[in-house]
Amino acid sequence: MPLKLVLRPGEKLIVNGAVIGIGDHPVSLFFYNKVNFLRGREILKEENCDTIEKRLYFIIQLIYIFPEDASTNMVHFAAILEEARVQHPDKADLFDEVQTLVREGNNYRALKLCRKLFDIKETAEAAPAPKPPVEVVRRRRKVAAPAVEE
Length: 150
What we know:
The protein is an alpha+beta fold. Helix content is 42%, strand content 14%. The protein has four helices and five strands, in the order βββββαααα. It comes from Nitrospirillum amazonense.
């Protein structure tokens, strides 16, 4: 049974390292063999890696999309993972699971797990700003009386 992806107009997709752009109409793609793919909304750019969780996601993304460079990126992955463990010792179980998934080659699942890490952190940090009090002022306009003709 093939994998079916439905993409929206203007959406981008990376398939085995190639960037594919979608035109003006929705598209259904069917993959009949194993491919490494990421949808545009799942891709993290290097300049947006401002936290250790995002750096971890990014290096796993590189391992996943570019398997030919996996050995080099695995060294970087180990270093970033250790840094993440030092910064967040309370999430050791999660990092162990990510490490196991990457070692087994299940990089897409590892990406999903890392995504949850920084999505949860961002929503917790992004508390809504207090709204200023609303002041309701009612003013009555004086309407000129209609002129009476004599």
